Amino acid sequence: FFFRAFQRNPLLPPSLVKNAGDSLLAISVQTSQGKQIFHSPVAFESRFIARDTLDERFAHLEVSVALHPTMASSLVVGGIPPSRLPLLSLLLALTSGLVAMAILQLRRQQELAQTRQEFVSGVSHELRTPLAQIRLFAELLRKGHLQSDEERDRSLEIIDEESQRLTYLVENVLSFSRSEHASASVAMEPLPVREELVRVTDAFTPLARARQNTIQVDAPDDLVALADPRAVRQVLLYLLDYAVKYGPVVQTVSIGGKIDNGRVRLWVADNGPGVPVTERERIWDPYYRLARDADTAGGSGIGLSIVKELVRLQGGRIWVEDTASRKSGKTGARFVIELQLAPSAGAPGLALPSPSEHAGVTA
Questions:
Q1: How far apart are CA 17 and CA 64, in angstroms?
Q2: How far, CA to CA in Å, does 102 sit from each of 21, 116, 303, 316?
Q3: Sign of the CA dihedral 204, 207, 208, 212?
Q4: Which among 57, 55, 50 is positioned nearest to 11, based on CA atoms?
Q5: How far is CA 139 from CA 83, 85, 159, 165, 334, in A?
Q6: Chain mean position to CA 213
Q7: In Å, what is the CA distance from 361 to each residue of 311, 312, 355?
Q8: Are strands 251-260 and 213-218 parallel, antiparallel or unpaired?
Q9: pLDDT per residue over 18-62, tens digit each?
Q10: pLDDT in tens, 134-173
């Protein structure tokens, strides 16, 4: 019955199939129990398949018709639309990328918020300690609780020391802010090294004395660097503070300078625990602190980043190494600063460079 029906009534327009006839259709008829009772002479796999179930007049027979894949584009005006899989894959990849970027940005925002919180906490801690000392001894002096001149002199000395600590901290924070906004600048000029080292040492001695530290200066009188005095002073003050803060209670801190390969080298060396080799590149990053330092002493973690930036602006470089006495069993860190050597005043054709000429030099 099915065979005769298909023979009498073409299922595909002759204008499309030409001489192929109905060999482009694979037809199969099954009973409702799944028994096949008819199939066309041709059979092939195709993704263009239609299925239908006849009514009760035809015993609910199930008919399936598969179209040959090569005929699909001829039966649809404009051809079969291309697969959407590449587009869907692209959209999926784009969505995944956007989600990953969003997660990464959220994580960075959380890390930045945490870093800021730690920075504010560290600065607040460092401000609170000297302020408490200043208020305490000022209150004792105001109320006359200190009877002897020695006690009053000692209280005034402590107030002066803590005031200097506050000054150093505020200057560091301001310098860090200026360097982040690219507004920091230097004024290069000939700088007598030994004179500057003595000046810095005299200013820092009260703070060093509080931890029973002594500072030893070692530099020739005729050594002259081409540098910014204020920047060099701030760098040395911070390195001295670092040496005293993280060094032992009783130690001798060495600060000096010399000429090495046509450059001026300054150094600050202590007898502390030193800086591990694996950490010597990261200590210059803003907010980064050694784990042992975070547990033993307060700090904001911006000092060394400021130091590196100030040295860079002067066309120099800075690094940290072991002290020379490391081999003898003693520990210690030695911070080395390399600056330009000032040209001789009588040398022809030598002119002092402007600060802008050094702004792009990498430390």
A1: 20
A2: 58, 21, 32, 40
A3: positive
A4: 50
A5: 84, 79, 11, 19, 40
A6: 36
A7: 10, 6, 11
A8: parallel
A9: 655 557 788 888 898 889 888 887 777 777 888 899 888 888 889
A10: 888 888 888 888 878 888 888 888 788 778 767 766 766 6
